[in-house]
Amino acid sequence: MMELKAVIVEDEANSREILRSYLAKYCEKVTLLGEGGTIEEGLAQIKKHQPDLVFLDVEMPFGNAFDLLDQIPERNFETVFVTAYNQYAMDALNHHAAYYLMKPINIDELIKAVDYVRAIKEKENALEGQVLQAKPVRAEGKITLPQQDGFQVLEVSDIYFCKADDNYTEIYLEKKKIVVSKTLKYFEDALQSYSFARIHKSYLVNVSEVVKYKKGKGGSVVLSNGKELSVSASKKADLLSYFQ
Asked: Exposed, middle or buried: residue 195 (CB in 10 Å: 0-12, 13-18, 19+)?
């Protein structure tokens, strides 16, 4: 089991104490290296210890968690947001949070969060720098694309990735792009039985074309045509599950 280095950034001393106690008592192989009560202290602890996991309170004096994350554009740690305000859920996902814990912290949810992050980090470390080979999945088939003057039939295996553009979707093939008046969710549903993974709110990728994975803020994938696409932290585990 991989050892996780952790940092807590939380302005309430009592909340830090509870989380520190829970981690020590219920979460195996988690080493707490530092704590911060402000954004500045948190940044200093993160830069000093280079953690794998940061527990981050959303609301803090003179700013919030997003202000802190914006100051670390390149980061290799996973973020678990801890807050009493559930309206931050979507912001958390959009700002590359791996997990979201509500106060008061539920021990079972904390254990799930740590296990989730550990699984991601172990898989990332195993895949980093390798030429990737997706697990065997269904790849052959056709999809019908509605067009203004009728429809077009496309081989699923010819698609590299799909990109959202409001209520339209751009479908990228080897040498051309097709724009279709359907949402990305439509194609996510239509291609769910094939080797396609939603890696970001904007991208649906053919995992058979993924040749490299890069760690980072949310991570990124490189396709066989050289195109690099961002991966959201909330989508990372799903993507990594496609690979050995």
From this structure: buried
Query: Would you say the C-alpha torsion 62, 63, 69, 73 has a positive or negative sign?
Result: negative
Q: Give the Cβ contact number of residue 194 at 10 Å.
A: 18
22 belongs to a structural domain: yes
Kindly state whether residues 163 and 103 are assigned to the same domain.
no
Q: How many domains does the chain have?
A: 2
Question: Which residue is it, tokens 């993924």?
Answer: 210
User: In terms of residue numbers, what domain contains 100?
Assistant: 4-127
Look up residue 227 and give its two tokens.
């195109």
Residue 81 or 216, more confident: 81
Residue pLDDT, tens place only, 4-56: 999 999 999 999 999 999 999 999 999 999 999 999 999 999 999 999 999 99
Q: 176 CB contacts (<8 Å, ≥6 apart)?
A: none
* Separation CA 39–CA 56 (nearest Å): 10
Cross-strand pairs, 210: 223
Give how far Cα 219 sits from Cα of 131, 175, 212, Å: 16, 26, 11
